[in-house]
Amino acid sequence: MSLLSPDQVGVVLYPDRLLLARVGGRFRRHLKHKQIIPVGPAPAGTPLWQPVVDALASQVTAGALVGAGVTLVLSNRLVHYTLVPHTKALGAGEEELAFVRHCFSRIHGGQVDGWAIRLDPSGTRNTRIACGVEVALVQALTKVMAPIGRHYRSLRPHFMASFNRWRAQLLGRQAWFVVAEPGLLSIALLCEGQWHSVRTVKVGPDWEPELAGVLSREECLVGSHTQCDEVLLFAPDTVQPITLDAGKWRINRLLPTVLPGMAPGVDSPYSVAIGA
Question: CA–CA distance from 56 to each of 78, 211, 232, 242 (Å)?
């Protein structure tokens, strides 16, 4: 990327839309361009992600990503997560990857064979989080982004990109970390910087009234020893203020990043892209 063009483009791929945000400025970042491209449902016999990958290909062909470093963020609908316990006897490399794949296969069975697996490199002495993405999706994105060359910087899962944004304030705390997408909640329990659980839960389009019940069920699944009532909620797609009958839960909303050129509330969904 040229020193004269310090732009960054974040692209978020959801099954039903493609979201792009172009940020400029080396010392004072500002939003230069934003766009949401709706996509239709995948035709029968094609992957859930095919329409949004095709939409991304059209943007690449049209030159929308030229002159910028590009980061892709995958909706949690397109990613699977699991926890991997620390094992002293476990080696690195292929042995470690085989163990991670085994952790996934206990939940998802043979379909894991078609996934690309990645393990969070941090906290090697603790339980770590791993993600799995269809190999076919990773390969399709690599092909689509080939014209961008070295300007294609990374591919990140939404949940992990969101966690890393607040990693410093989350580590050392005991709290539920929740990332909300329309129809889906990704929920993890952190205790003093260690992962205790992670799960994605399907919910209705108006998920706010369901949150307290979902948290109560997760608490039961994890075990009564947790005793954690604090919830840190990141819900960038929710434009209006969230009002909840939360019961015992102390819900603190993590506010989306707002740059010059962005309207608070209205442009909240773009924070996923600009924070990647």
Answer: 15, 32, 31, 31
The answer to whether 134 touches 47, Cβ cutoff 8 Å, is yes
pLDDT along the chain (276 residues), means of 10: 69 97 88 95 96 98 94 97 80 80 89 91 76 97 96 95 86 89 94 88 89 92 78 85 74 87 87 84
Q: Are 35 and 19 in contact (CB under 8 A)?
A: yes
Q: State in Å, rounded, how far the first CA of the chain is from the last one.
A: 17
Kind of pairing between the strands at 115-119 and 184-191: unpaired
Q: Contact, 222 vs 196, CB < 8 A?
A: yes
> Residue 15: beta bridge partners?
none
CA distance 13 to 145: 13
Long-range contacts of 36-39 (CB under 8 A, 24+ apart): 36/269, 39/15
If one counts every other C-beta atom within 10 angstroms of the C-beta of residue 148, the result is 16
The Cα–Cα gap between 149 and 142 comes to 10
- Strand arrangement of the beta sheet that strand 80-84 belongs to: 80-84, 128-134, 115-119
- The Cα–Cα gap between 135 and 39 comes to 22
CA distance 206 to 98: 39
Beta strands in 125-249 (DSSP E): 128-134, 152-157, 174-181, 184-191, 194-202, 230-234
What letter would DSSP give residue 210? G
- The residue among 225, 223, 229, 179 whose CA lies nearest residue 201 is 179
Token pair, residue 211, equals 């949150």
How far, in Å, CA of 16 to CA of 203, rounded?
Answer: 16
- What is the pTM for the complete model shown? 0.92
CA distances from 167 to 3, 33, 117, 249 (A): 29, 28, 22, 21
